[in-house]
Design goal:
- The protein has helices at 28-52, 76-79, 81-93, 113-132, 152-163, 168-171, 185-195, 203-208, 218-226, 258-266, 282-291, 298-315, 317-326, 335-347, 352-363, 372-386, 392-405, 409-412; strands at 4-7, 56-58, 97-100, 140-144, 174-177, 199-202, 237-240, 273-276.
- By secondary structure, the protein is an alpha/beta fold.
- The chain has two domains: 4-291, TIM Barrel (Alpha-Beta Barrel); 298-412, no CATH class.
- It has an eight-stranded parallel β-barrel with strand order 1-2-3-4-5-6-7-8, surrounded by four helices.
- Helix 15 packs parallel to helix 17 (392-405).
- The model has no long low-confidence stretch (mean pLDDT 96).
Length: 419
C-alpha cells in the first residue's frame, strides 16, 4: 500500500504546536519545558495521523530547540528516553514511516569548514532523534547535495569527502534529493549510485532544474531512482508538490489540486511513498489519501464535510448547496467531485455579506447559551465588520473562544477558524 503524507506541522489539529525560544533564553530549565511540550505535540500529531490513516510524516527539525547547538547542554535523549520510546511505539503500532529534513543551512559540501562542522553536527542531531524513537532504517534524513560555489566537480568532491566524515548512524539514514537550482536529478543519481545513497525524486524541483537534452518523463526518473533503494532502505520515497500559480517559480501551492495529482499518481509504475509538500499540510494529505482509496465510505466523506462546511459557506454558497446535494446519495461516494467543489470554493474571494452569513450560522451554536454580555459583544463586532471598522479575525476569535468555553467540539474540529 502506498503511503501519502505531509511535512512537520498540521492545520486544524489542536495541541500540536511546537515551541522554541530566543538563544539568550535557552536555559536548561526552559529547554526542559520546551522539549516536554514539543514531545506532547508530536504525540498528538501521531495520534491524529493514525486516526486519519496517514502513514508518512516528516518530523520537524525544531523538535528539540537548539538540538545541534552547544547552547543546548541537555542530554535530552536520556532525560526524555521514556517519552521517545512511547512515541516510537506509536509510530510502529500505527505502521507509520517518519523522516526528517534539515534546513537550508545544513550544507555538507560548503567550502567553509565551520559550515561543514555545523552541518555534521546537525545531521548527527537528526539521526539521534530517529534513533531515540527506535524506528527502523526506512526512517530517513533527506538532504540536498548543496551549492556549486563556481565549480560543480569540486562541490561534488567535497560532498563525497564530507559524507565519509559522517558517523554510521547518519550514513545509514541519509538520502539525497534533487534541487531546483544546482543539482539535477541526473547529477544526484550519479552521486547516489557512487556512494550507495538512496535518491529522492522531487517533481517540482525537477520542473525547475531539468537535465539538458533529457527526454525522460517524471515517471522514468522515478523508476531510475528506484534502483538506489534496496530492501534495507524501505520503500522508495518521493516528494510531490505543485506550483502556486500566483507566486514565483518553486513556491508550493496552497493545496494539492486533486485531479492534477491523480494524473501523476496513476502514472506511477510501482508503489512508492509520497511526501506532499504543500501549504495546507494534512488537509491535502487526507484529500489525496481519500481520492486514491477504492473502499472509502460515504460517512468518511460526510465527516470531512463537517470540517469544511462553514468555510465553504462563507466562500461560495453555490458550492455549499451543490456539495450538500452531492452527499444526499448514500449509495455512492463521489470523493473526487467532492474535493473538486471544495477546491473551487476555497479559491473564491468571499464578500462581506457571505462572511457575515457564515458568522451567523456559527453563532447559532451559542445563541441559547451566550450571556447577555457575549451577545452584545458579538453583535457589536459583527456590525463593526459590516461597516468596515472591524476585522474578520476579531469576530472569528470571539467565536472560537465561545466554542472553547461551551465545548462545541463540532466547531473546534472544523476548519472555520483555520482556513
Amino acid at each position: 500500500m502506498i503511503n501519502i503524507g505531509y511535512a512537520c506541522l498540521s492545520l486544524g489539529v489542536r495541541d500540536t504546536g511546537f515551541k522554541s525560544c530566543r538563544r539568550e533564553n535557552a536555559t536548561e530549565a526552559n529547554l526542559e519545558r520546551l522539549v516536554s511540550h514539543n514531545l506532547r505535540s508530536l504525540q498528538n500529531l501521531l495520534h491524529y495521523n493514525r486516526a486519519q490513516g496517514i502513514g508518512l510524516f516528516r518530523i520537524t527539525s525544531d523538535l528539540i530547540p537548539f538540538g545541534s547547538s552547544s547552547v543546548n547542554t541537555l542530554r535530552w535523549w536520556e532525560n526524555f528516553a521514556p517519552q521517545f520510546a512511547q512515541l516510537g511505539d506509536l509510530i510502529k503500532e500505527g505502521n507509520m514511516r517518519v523522516s526528517m529534513h534539515p534546513g537550508q543551512y545544513t550544507v555538507l559540501n560548503s567550502p567553509h569548514e565551520r559550515v561543514v562542522e555545523n552541518s555534521i553536527r546537525d545531521l548527527t542531531y537528526h539521526a539521534l532523534v530517529l534513533d531515540s524513537l527506535q524506528v527502523g532504517l526506512d526512517s530517513k534524513i533527506v538532504l540536498h547535495i548543496g551549492g556549486v560555489y563556481g565549480n560543480k566537480e569540486e562541490a561534488v568532491k567535497r560532498f563525497t569527502e564530507n559524507f565519509a566524515r559522517l558517523n554510521q548512524n547518519v550514513k545509514r539514514r541519509l538520502v539525497i534529493e534533487n534541487d531546483g537550482r544546482f543539482f539535477t536529478i541526473e547529477e544526484v543519481l550519479a552521486v547516489g549510485r557512487r556512494l550507495g545513497i538512496p535518491v529522492v525524486f522531487d517533481n517540482l524541483h525537477h520542473d525547475l532544474n531539468r537535465p539538458q537534452d533529457s527526454v525522460l518523463t517524471d515517471h522514468d526518473w522515478i523508476k531510475a531512482c528506484s534502483e538506489t533503494w534496496d530492501k534495507g532502505h524501505g520503500r522508495q520515497k518521493i516528494h510531490y508538490s505543485q506550483q502556486d500559480p500566483a507566486k514565483k517559480s518553486g513556491a508550493h501551492s496552497q493545496t494539492i489540486r486533486v485531479e492534477e495529482f491523480l494524473d501523476f499518481y496513476q502514472g506511477l509504475q510501482a508503489e512508492v511513498d509520497i511526501m506532499l509538500e504543500v501549504k495546507d499540510k494534512n488537509l491535502s494529505a487526507v484529500k489525496c489519501i481519500y481520492c486514491t482509496k477504492s473502499d472509502l465510505k460515504i460517512n468518511q466523506l460526510e465527516k470531512e464535510w463537517s470540517k469544511y462546511k462553514y468555510t465553504v459557506l462563507e466562500r461560495s454558497p453555490e458550492d455549499y448547496v451543490e456539495i450538500r446535494q452531492l452527499l444526499k446519495d448514500k449509495k455512492s461516494c463521489p470523493t473526487v467531485e467532492f474535493y473538486r467543489l471544495i477546491e473551487d470554493a476555497l479559491k473564491q474571494e468571499p464578500t462581506i455579506g457571505q462572511e457575515v452569513n457564515g458568522m451567523l450560522h456559527v453563532w447559532g451554536y451559542f445563541n441559547e447559551k451566550a450571556s447577555t454580555c457575549e451577545k452584545k459583544r458579538f453583535g457589536k463586532n459583527v456590525e463593526a465588520y459590516k461597516n468596515g471598522h472591524g476585522s474578520l479575525r476579531a469576530v472569528k476569535n470571539q467565536l472560537k473562544r465561545l466554542a472553547e468555553k461551551y465545548r462545541e467540539e463540532y466547531l473546534l474540529n472544523s476548519y472555520y477558524f483555520t482556513l
